[in-house]
Each structure stands twice: as structure tokens, then as C-alpha cells.
Amino acid sequence: MNHYFSRRSFLKKSIIAGGALTLASSPLGSIVMAKPNERVNLAAIGIGFRGGEILMELHKTGLCNIVALCDVDMGAKHTEAAIKQFPDVPRFQDFRQMFDKMGNQIDAVTVGVPDFSHFPITMMALDLGKHVYVEKPMARTFLEVELMMEKARKNPKLATQMGNQGHSEANYFQFKAWTEAGIIKDVTQIVGHMNMPRRWHGWDVNMKNFPPAEPIPSTMDWDLWQMQTLGHNYNKDFVNGQWRCWFDFGMGALGDWGAHILDTSHEFLKLGLPTEVGAEMLEGHNSFFFPMSSTLKFSFPKRKGMPALDIMWYDGINNLPPIPEGYGVSGLDPNIPPPSTGNLEPAKLNPGKIIYGKDLTFKGGSHASTLSIIPESKAKDLANKLPEVPNTPSNHFANFLKACKGEEKTRSSFDIAGPLSQVFCLGVIAQRLNGKFKFDPVKKEITNDKFANALLIGPPPRQGFEQYYKV
Fold first, then answer.
1. Which of 402, 409, 408, 413 is nearest to 61 (CA)?
2. Separation CA 330–CA 333 (nearest Å)
3. Ranges of H-type helices in 106-231
4. What proportion of the chain, given as a percentage, has pLDDT over 90?
5. Least packed by Cβ within 10 Å: which of 106, 174, 262, 344?
């Protein structure tokens, strides 16, 4: 029997029988829609590039109605697909106007915009009682992440989810099961690595100024694009993903990929915040954009029943970590998406991690990729002692929408994703200053460098955005 047609006939019978399901036909294929009164009314803020992908993934679950689209460059080419998919949905350029006009029709929002602009949108949404799905990392400064966590704690009935989608896939459930079974234990070092070319590779590290002003596209609200930041003239190298390159706007390779590589280690090894952070090596360090290569060290103290642990982070094309004996081949796992630059050239080492325990060493990839015990002989010895790993009950997008309805708990809620994002904020400060510092995880202060400590807060917000810094 053809399973595709038998499934369709089953769904049609279900629709006739009880109206429980509807089939929506779209370029994405047939989507099984929940009953209208069981769908979450969702507004998408940022509908091009990654924001557009998030929108489509949430739509594909059949658990939401798309009720509003918002983008500061609504007439740009990269917004066309979303507008074509949802031609009758109201559109806005300014998230504040969207909330003013449609707030009572919105249950939840997606925030798929540049890292630095996650903060004001998320804070306003939570204030208005909206569930929030925000792309990773949560925010660009340590303080902003802290305030987002506080705001979420004040609104415990609201679902929050950071968009590190592997946190709802095989990697998450395997790491959880292996930790609980004592397979992953006594870990003293984790090596994270991302050695693919980045957007800023090849730029002039001796630049003395930001790039010159260019004409602002007629479709774009450049003033609003800058959000709480101030003082940049429009240039094409600030927008459409290029914002990742700059200290003022993005989080470099660490913020971009760290949440996909280090997330499960951070949660299940209960790492919290480090006590020391340092740039061990930076190649091409400058005042404007991220180094060509970085080696960073994060030192975490002992936790209950767990030894002190260091995370080493390596980025840069030739800045590979030491490879342990018996590592084997670094094949590109299909669970690892290509970088947002679309770069598909083979890397010398694919994004991932090496985890060193007292008795066992593990290698893993990024996103949904699962761990392997190395060397292979050791893996074979333990094959029949490994616990069963459950399948995921819902992908990251369905998990969020089900949490909005009170049916599940989000797996990357702000209380879990916040401290992880703050680790990246600390790493970026070390990159920016090319330095090392001590950090007090209780007081949440850098104790031996006033300049670095000031970067936890960042520059004051421009006029009109101060309100978002109040919890």
C-alpha cells in the first residue's frame, strides 16, 4: 500500500468524522492543521533569512495561525517568500506599532532579527503577556540577557524558547540519558570548535573607521534597524547577516555556533557561569570586528559531585584544537546545517566538540548530532551498557507552541538558555579586549578589570529605548 495516500485518506476520514484536523495546501506541502481554537496566534518579527525560516518551521507544525508580519525592511527581496506565503496577513515595519494595533490578537511572537535587537522586542512582548521564541544567542550584552531572564521569571505563565533547535533533537536526549546513567561523568575539559570560513575573514584588520555611509534602501527604516544602539551610518556590510561580524551588533563565531555546540554540556553538566575567562590566542585582533582566529578559555568551578571544568573554544580556519588519538574521521554530519554564509567548502574539522572525562572521551558535532565514544574499541566495549535514548516528542518549534498552550515545557527556556548566552557574552568581552579576567558568578561582576566590567552593561540606550531596561 502507498503510505502517502493511505495517510491522506486517514486524515480525510478524520476531518469528516470530527473536524479535528484540516489539511492546508501550500508550497511547503500539505500541512496538518490543529482545530482553529487549538492554534496559537503568532506574529513574526523578522521575516527574511533566519527569521523567515523560523516562521516557516512554526507554520509547518500546524499548531499556529500567522496573524502579523513585521520587518524593518518589509519591501526587500528577502521578505518576498514570507509575504507570498501569507499574502493576507497584516504587515508592519515597527514592532511597537504592531503591538499597538494588534496586541489583543497576538498570543506569541518570534524574534528572528539581529542579535543586538532581540532585547527590546522580547522585553516589550513579555510585558504585554506574549509568549516569545527568540533566535540564539538571547542578547548581545550580559545585562540584557539578565533582564530578559528577570522579566521571564516575573511572567512564569509565559513560554520562552531560545532558538538552538538541536536542544529538542537526538543530541539533547542522548546527552541527558548518558549523563543520568553515569556514562558522561567526571568531565574536566570540553573543547568546542568552529573552523569554517566566516563573513569577516579577509577583511582589513588595520581599518581605522567603520565603512563609509551608503544610500539607505528606500524600503528600509534604518533608524529603527539600529534599535537601542546609535551612531552608525547605513552600509550594506552592517545588514542582512553581515551584522554578525561587528562587536557593536553581533557575537562572532562563538555566539553564532556556541549555542549549537555547547548547549547540552552546559545544561546537563550544570555549568552555570565561569570564574575566569581569557583570550589565550587571537589572530587579527582589532577594535571593530571579530578576530580571524580565537582560542578562548572558560574556567568553571566544582559543582555538586562534579569536578572543576575548562571549556576551550577554537575558531578560525587553521586554528584547530588538539585531536586525541582514536578520533577517527571528521565527516560532515547531515544534522549540521551549513553556516548562514552558505559556505559548503569542506572544513579541516567540522563544527563540534570533544569531551574529556576521567575514564571516557567523547566526540560530537553540532545541532542535533549525537556523541560517539572514542576510540572505537572503547565504544564497542561499552555498546551493551549504554542506556536507551528516547525519541523526541516534539521538535523545537512544536515544543514552543505546545508550551504556549500549556501542554509541554520549553526545553531552551530563558532560565536554561540565559546563563549559556551569558557565557558567550563573557567570551566576546575577552575577544574585544584581547584579555583575561576573573568573574564572580554570584555578584555577576568582573572583579579585576573595570573596563571589562563596564562592557557587561554596554553603552547606554538611546532615547526612547530606556523603558525596555526596566523589569
1. 402
2. 9
3. 118-127, 142-154, 170-180, 222-225
4. 88
5. 344
Pull the grid cell for residue 226. 539600529
What is the chain's alpha carbon radius of gyration, rounded to the nearest angstrom?
22
- The dihedral over CA atoms of 220, 226, 231, 233, expressed in degrees to the nearest 10, equals -30
Which residues on neighbouring strands pair with residue 133, listed in sequence order?
110, 161
Give start and end residues of each alpha helix (H) in 351-435.
376-382, 396-404, 414-433
The residues, ordered by sequence, that sit 6+ positions from 29 with a Cβ below 8 Å of its Cβ are none
**Cα–Cα distance between 398 and 88 in angstroms, integer?**
24
Strand-strand pairing, 309-315 and 293-300: antiparallel
pLDDT tens digit sequence for 110-153: 999 999 999 999 999 999 999 999 999 999 999 999 999 999 99
List, in order, residues 6 or more apart from 37 with CB less than 8 Å away. Answer: none
Contact between 47 and 79 under an 8 Å Cβ cutoff? The reply is yes
Residue keyed to cell 513585521: 70
Residue 194 in 3-state DSSP? strand
CA torsion, ordered 52, 53, 58, 61, to nearest 10 deg? 130
Cell matching residue 401: 507552541
Q: Rounded distance, CA 417 to CA 337, Å?
A: 21
